[in-house]
Design goal:
Length: 351
């Protein structure tokens, strides 16, 4: 068994398992990609130990917490790691590379495994994500898909990915469609930290010799913010603009957002989020159409009065190379139409 030497975030490759020893709540907020959660203290136990530390003493917290840690590590050894071979090599981390991961590593090494501890823990990983994301963003050979609402940009991205093109699906990572109607049923947005970790992993995976297709986005997707370095890269990258008729866009939206008709009050609440941006009488009319499930009238007027003017203002202001955009026209946005559109866009990789 090798010497127990803390591993830095730059030396994390080659381990058989990555173990996050923090509580389930900490793990859910964010974690290193590929890690499994084997808490040495669960959420309730962590609260108990923290209270003892504050109200009584560090000794009492360690005495009570030590028993909890030992019991939890024993359970993990029995349930999670009972079948691991002698040459199994795990890397363990906690919040700062302290007692939680240290205790876990000690027990794993006593068994005979070459367990190692991540120096600085999750905090060091988080610092790495923040520090390296900016450098990654400025190197990305982005090709930005622009087009007004209803141009099927997200579906085109998915089709490009199916064609083995490199795609940065920001809305997929954020769990949100990026507009006032953009929340996805049954999907909760990740935390800001988790979003940044997922984004870092995606950016790290790209071959910089090939284009990376991405959809034009504002600074925020739902409640999540894009890193400023990526926003800047988006704004200065080459643009491909999708041009499609208003009728085809409306037809696409009525299919893509048909589920909104199943929750009229929820749709009314989303429209209420536009208060202050449009006249109250307009919003009242839209909410009345929502309750009547009159989606063709609602979506048509939302495009005419809100989305299209917003697109014209924001794209011209934010995307510096929009006037040089390669324009691609689509006759329809049916499944076959989107497939054809994606193939023609993929052929523009050299723009």
């Amino acid at each position: 068994m090798s010497h127990n030497t803390p591993i830095t975030v730059h030396d994390m490759q080659g381990f058989d398992a990555l173990i996050d020893a923090r509580s389930p709540a900490e793990f859910a907020l964010d974690h290193v990609p590929g890690a499994i959660n084997c808490p040495v203290l669960d959420d309730q136990e962590r609260r108990i130990v923290g209270t003892l530390y504050v109200q009584q003493s560090a000794f009492e917290a360690r005495r009570v917490g030590g028993a909890m840690v030992a019991a939890n590590i024993a359970r993990h050894l029995r349930e999670q790691f009972h079948d691991k071979p002698k040459n199994w090599r795990p890397l363990v981390y906690c919040w700062r590379g302290g007692m939680r991961s240290g205790s876990f590593v000690t027990w794993l090494r006593l068994v005979g495994w070459d367990a190692q501890q991540l120096k600085g823990g999750y905090k060091a990983w988080r610092g790495h994500v923040i520090a390296s994301s900016a450098g990654l963003a400025v190197t990305l050979p982005l090709r930005v898909l622009c087009g007004p609402t209803g141009s099927a940009k997200t579906r085109v991205l998915h089709e490009l990915a199916r064609l083995d093109e490199q795609v940065l699906d920001l809305e997929g990572l954020a769990g949100h469609r990026g507009s006032v109607l953009g929340s996805i049923p049954g999907v909760e947005q990740p935390s800001q930290k988790r979003f940044e970790t997922l984004l870092h992993a995606a950016m790290s995976s790209f071959d910089l010799a090939r284009p990376v297709w991405v959809e034009a986005e504002s600074r925020k997707i739902g409640r999540l913010s894009l890193p400023e370095s990526l926003v800047s890269r988006l704004r200065t990258s080459p643009v491909v603009e999708i041009l499609v008729s208003l009728e085809a866009r409306l037809d696409y939206l009525l299919r893509d957002y048909a589920w909104l008709g199943d929750d009229p009050e929820g749709l009314c609440a989303k429209i209420g989020g536009l208060k202050g941006l449009l006249p109250n009488e307009t919003l009242s009319r839209w909410q009345a159409w929502s309750r009547e499930r009159a989606l063709p009238a609602l979506f048509g007027e939302m495009m005419a009065l809100h989305y299209d003017p917003l697109y014209a203002r924001s794209q011209n202001r934010n995307y510096q190379r929009l006037d040089q955009a390669v324009q691609v026209r689509a006759q329809d946005l049916t499944d076959s139409g989107i497939e054809d559109l994606a193939r023609r866009i993929a052929a523009l990789a050299a723009v």
